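Entry 14: structure prediction run for Pyrimidine operon attenuation protein / uracil phosphoribosyltransferase. Input pasted below.
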Amino acid sequence: MVTDKVLILDKDQIKKKISRIAYQILEDNFEEPELVLAGVADRGYILAERLKEELHQISGELNVTLIKITLDKISSTLIAGTDVPVSNAENKVLILVDDVLNSGRTLAYGLGVFLNVPLKKMRTAVLIDRSHHKFPVISDFSGLRLSTILNEHVSVTLKGYEDEEDAAYLH
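Run finished. Output tokens:
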């Protein structure tokens, strides 16, 4: 088993990827007065916060609401909570945000939180899409699409959650 970490994104590259994703989100929703970014705790929520900051910089008039989703990612059933009522996303565009899309389970569970909420549309945004989907979930916006073998692992560190600099590693 490979134990060496290979840096695939450094902090400057992550910043550029977040900026590019924000522009893509804005282009996809240029007529919307408001967006909801729902970040999967913990790194997905940090990315959602950063996307919100970037969206405010590139479009001052866009109102962006954040929702933090807490999931039991190991459970075989949906066990989830949010920091604000999911009704805050009603009749709005929702962007579900996570750090890495691997099998799609986490995003599928995140989507499940909003199944009974009438939305204008729902999109997904991830920093890295590994293309090993077991669930019918795709990333609408991704910073990097990476083809890996199944025994390789992608890890993301984000300042604000870890004490390390922003980085993404393959190991």
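Notes: The first strand starts at residue 6 and ends at 9. Will compare against the previous run tomorrow.
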